[in-house]
């Protein structure tokens, strides 16, 4: 897995987690939903990259 992509995907997951927590604290459903979406998207990207690496060798 490319290191830059790995860092970018982890950053997206972390950003989503922070956004979701902030949404919970402020009771803002839009922020909660956006955070969850960012988290899931980052995790899916990580899974895709891991699958590509598994079939690469």
UniProtKB/TrEMBL annotation:
Please give the residue ranges the record annotates as the region Disordered. 27-57
Ranges for the CsbD-like domain? 6-56
* Record field: compositional bias (Basic and acidic residues): 47-57
Name the Pfam families for this protein. CsbD
- Give the InterPro entries listed for this entry: CsbD, YjbJ_sf
**Which Gene3D superfamilies does the entry mention?**
YjbJ
Q: Which family does it belong to?
A: Belongs to the UPF0337 (CsbD) family.
| Protein name in the entry | CsbD family protein
Q: Upper lineage ranks?
A: Bacteria, Bacillati, Actinomycetota, Actinomycetes, Kitasatosporales
């Amino acid at each position: 897995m490319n290191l830059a992509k790995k860092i970018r995907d982890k950053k997206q997951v972390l950003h989503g987690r922070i956004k979701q927590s902030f949404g919970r604290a402020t009771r803002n459903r839009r922020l909660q939903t956006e955070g969850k979406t960012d988290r899931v998207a980052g995790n899916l990207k990580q899974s895709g990259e891991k699958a590509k690496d598994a079939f690469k060798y």
